[in-house]
Amino acid sequence: xxxxxxxxxxxxxxxxxxxxxxxxxxxxxxxxxxxxxxxxxxxxxxxxxxxxxxxxxxxxxxxxxxxxxxxxxxxxxxxxxxxxxxxxxxxxxxxxxxxxxxxxxxxxxxxxxxxxxxxxxxxxxxxxxxxxxxxxxxxxxxxxxxxxxxxxxxxxxxxxxxxxxxxxxxxxxxxxxxxxxxxxxxxxxxxxxxxxxxxxxxxxxxxxxxxxxxxxxxxxxxxxxxxxxxxxxxxxxxxxxxxxxxxxxxxxxxxxxxxxxxxxxxxxxxxxxxxxxxxxxxxxxxxxxxxxxxxxxxxxxxxxxxxxxxxxxxxxxxxxxxxxxxxxxxxxxxxxxxxxxxxxxxxxxxxxxxxxxxxxxxxxxxxxxxxxxxxxxxxxxxxxxxxxxxxxxxxxxxxxxxxxxxxxxxxxxxxxxxxxxxxxxxxxxxxxx
Length: 433
What we know:
Blueprint: H1 14-56, H2 65-87, H3 102-111, H4 113-147, H5 149-152, E1 160-162, E2 165-167, H6 170-178, H7 180-187, H8 190-205, H9 211-263, H10 268-296, H11 299-304, H12 306-316, E3 321-325, H13 342-363, E4 368-374, E5 378-385, H14 398-408, E6 412-416, E7 423-430
Parallel strand pairs: 3-4
Antiparallel strand pairs: 1-2, 4-5, 5-7, 6-7
Helix pairs in contact: 1-2, 1-4, 1-8, 2-4, 2-8, 4-7, 4-8, 9-10, 9-14, 12-13, 13-14
């Protein structure tokens, strides 16, 4: 990491402000112009809603209400995406599904606050959206034209009229050019107007009060189900490992010792050979049991911590591994120095183990990099490989398992794997209480 010893102070001069505004002007003007198109879309949507509402007074338009609500959603979603991108944070709203009988659909239309907020935005965006788009299109052109009057007024065959003044001399032409200053100042407010329009969209099209809680409950319900599925799959894996491995070997030991007991009098040499085989089989069974125990919770995590456990994983990796294992110092929310919460350490360990396995099997990588860091609130694990890339999640695959393990702890996984590589798996696990 490269840091500047003396970072430059922010440019707070007038020239700096002008440069910043000039850089932001094209995007802001474009945002307002597109807002004009969405305002015209809102006009047609409000007209359609008005027609359906009028027809519903005599009962004809009632069946069309859910369909009209459904048809306006693409326009509203487009505005959410625009405003979220402008503000730097996505606007996410979950609608109640419009399904079932007509009565159920109508009940959902009037019960879901998101529908009412959509209609409110259509009505309130209609006039300001058109006006701001008109100003965004006309004012920059008018400012440039006003500033250029001293250049072209003598070239035109007729007099130049501007703000009710007929330009017939150089003093009048220069005076007319000065009018470009207040016009330019208004144009420079386009980023403010664009942000205001985006804030208004977020206020109207964002989640209703209480909706965030409902979305959060839905997310936790889904992650809880995923955690239960992952737990069930882990139990089945342990049961399969014990049944096919250690249990079978212990059964073989019992059989070999039974045969040795029967041969003890008649053929002592054969009995001794069976005892030696039983001892070897028991040793193998013990080794497999230790592997199963390590798969449940590696003892090295308890004894030496996550950093040492990852170092041990890297040492066993078939692919060379570079490590960047930053400990948290005094920032970690833990009971022991240098340790994260046990559940987070276990999740990070298994994420890295699975990522190494995936890279070994599928990527063709020649180098892995494992980074570990974070803060008091978050443990971050990142695994990079220089393989072929184009990795994707498949049901039951290793990457899907990593995502489920992260989401079960209210974390998230980010995957970047363009064709040709590199592949980066980043897992963020919350550690705060």
